[in-house]
Amino acid sequence: MNTDEKYEAVIKAMDDYTYQWHPENALDPSKPILKITKSSLGAFKWCANKYKFSYIERLPQDQTEAMRKGTIVHNAREDFFNDFDISKAENMSSGEILEYCNSLFPVDDYMDMYMTIASFEAQRFIDARDEGKLDEFIPIINEECFDCEIVIPHDLHPDFNLARDYKVHLQGIIDRVFNEGNNLIPMELKTGLWKESSYKYTSMRKEMAFYEILINNSTQEVREKFGLTEDMKVTHWGWYYPASNFIHVEPLKKVTIRSVMKNIAELIKAYEDNLFLPKYWAKTCAHCSYFGICEAATEDTWG
Residue 174 to residues 4, 198, 226, 254, 268: CA-CA distances in angstroms? Predict the structure, then answer.
């Protein structure tokens, strides 16, 4: 399956679920139920009103250079792992491995970032070869769409009690998952700059926790599709910012997973009450695609 066919298949799969609120469908497997993605949940926590504009009203957003860059670089790294030939590289010298890694990336506006990634992967390959772990160099998941359904208990979040338990559909494209024995390690690629802060660590951990929930609650059919056995569980997670040459891997944090589950309950509560309140902050809201139609922004701007 080529890249275009894979993309079309992913989009078609996503159409089976909806961001529209149909609570009556939650117990009927033949009908669409509420879809939640890492991006939609993150948007809701950032600003519930922006979530409403984007995911419920489906208003268009401006395509930024950062979005374009992210898409192109993600595609290039996916192709890198698809094209990497371990048997070809295993007898190369260090310099040849670096040259080989560089050759697997395209020639475009982001070559500086590709060179950083190529250097990182070349060293990782050399280390894996020295340790006799070349079988762990290629990720077992490489830009793949995962689906799962979970039940959110009505009393999961003490501040957002729901009318009843709800089944929701989680969906997301996971950048990469590496394995060490039976340990699964999802890794997220970010094309922006890393900024050292507790907020940044918290936000990244929530993204990775969403992936953990996706993987560990996926159906047997999904697990078999990606060669995941029952004893393979997410034990660590991490993220890579090549623009800052920053990589971080850590054991998963159960407290973050619980926090993400509570965030989902909060989102469902907003649907129940039909209440998506804005969070106005002039420094960031000025760059929002919906600035001109947001009541909070208008009130702040015009008094």
Answer: 18, 24, 12, 19, 23
